[in-house]
Amino acid sequence: MGQKDIAPRRERLASALRWTARQFSCTMTVPTVSVSLRIRRMIKVSVMYPNKPGARFDHAYYRDKHMPLLKARMGDSCKFYTVDKGLAGGGPGEPATYVGMCHVFCESVEAFQAGFGPHAKEIMADIPNYTDLTPVIQISEVVVGPP
Question: Which of 17, 77, 112, 133 gets the most CB atoms within 10 Å of its CB?
Answer without folding.
Answer: 112
